[in-house]
Each structure stands twice: as structure tokens, then as C-alpha cells.
Request: fold
Amino acid sequence: MKLVVAIIHGDDAKGVVDALLQREYRATRVNSSGGFLRRTNATLLVGVDEAAVDDVISLIRLHTKARSQVRADGAAAGSDRRADVRGAVVFVVDIEGFTRL
Reply:
């Protein structure tokens, strides 16, 4: 069993969750914010068999996009400091299992 933890840009989260549900993957969405850009993100938790990990990551890749955003510290300094950000950061963690109650 694997736990896929995906930190996704807030604008992309709905599309990713919809795609996962369409393929019958269950996901838990937790709203979060990043320390670097201080923007709204969504952290998705998806428990899957090891064979499904590549499919889940492919869906995330398909429904997210890289973008350029103004850095939080740039606004305070009065300069337009931009940062290129990826659509998602994905962690895959070994787990012994999970139980739906």
C-alpha cells in the first residue's frame, strides 16, 4: 500500500479531485498554504495499491500546470519579484494499510 501526498496549487485542485474520483480513487483534500509564496494550496491524501501510483501521478500531472507568481516578499519590497512554480509536489509513502470506518 502507498499513500500519495500531493500538494497542488489551489486553482488546480478541483480538476485533480474530479479526475481522481472519475477513476474511482478516493482522495481527502486538506486546504493548506505554502511558506514560500504564501498562496492557497490543496494537499491531497490518496491511499492506493502500489500498482495504481503511476496512474494517480499521471492524473495529477495531466490536471496541473506550472505558473509564474509574484513572490510574497516582493510585494512588500515594492518590486515585482516573480517565481516559477510547478503545478504539484508529490510524495509517495509506504504504508501498511488503511481502514475506512
Q: What stands out?
A: The longest helix spans residues 13-22.
